Amino acid sequence: MSEAPNPNIIDADTLTGEMRPIRRVVVGLGSNLGERLDNLQGAVDALADTPDVWITGISPVYESEPVGCPPDSPKFLNAVVLMDTTLSAHRLLDRALAIEDAYDRDRSHGVNSPRTLDVDLIVVGDRRSDTEALKLPHPLAHERSFVLRPWLDLEPDAEIPDQGPISVLLEKVGTDGLDRRDDLVLESDE
Ligand SMILES: Nc1ncnc2c1ncn2[C@@H]1O[C@H](COP(=O)(O)OP(=O)(O)OP(=O)(O)O)[C@@H](O)[C@H]1O
Ligand SMILES: Nc1nc2c(c(=O)[nH]1)N=C(CO)CN2
Known about the structure:
4 helices, 6-stranded antiparallel β-sheet, two-stranded antiparallel sheet, 24% helix, ATP-binding, alpha+beta
């Protein structure tokens, strides 16, 4: 994220009148099971339909070799979505998990087993968290080309708090195993 949330930009809650800061959010999407593009598009649509969330950017789609997955796992499609929101990080996480569940995400198998849909919060404004339920910034984002590369397409000057510019991080990590799929496009219905 290239800038901290602007504390002067606020939104009044329509019911309570409470003023809430607008946070810039980076979301990572992944799928390596089922109709992968449809799954990613469903996640984009569900995020766009979320009250108090405004999508500001949708990256190109990348196909990527599975990283840290069981042997013979299928390739992923990955993309990144940028949003503005007045929701808290915890509300966003609840929403992300609910969207995964709507795509029959099966959590009963082992670590990094193939999944219909993964919705990861990468950065939420300048929010930091280190609980099991919510880690922000996402602790592996800085070493994942399938997050950094699509994010770079949208925000070349972005930085991950405490890690640095994503352009520099991507140079360290490289882009082996990553293919931009210009034949696959995620649409915004807004
Ligand atoms: N930044 C975050 N974004 C999404 N989920 C998170 C985050 N931080 C912690 N979690 C927790 O991680 C759990 C999701 O684990 P899951 O099995 O989907 O991990 P994963 O997405 O497969 O792995 P990875 O975290 O390596 O991408 C959720 O229960 C959620 O509470
Ligand atoms: N290429 C790729 N590899 C992964 C991905 C992913 O989205 N893409 N997600 C993982 C766990 O969330 C583990 N490994």
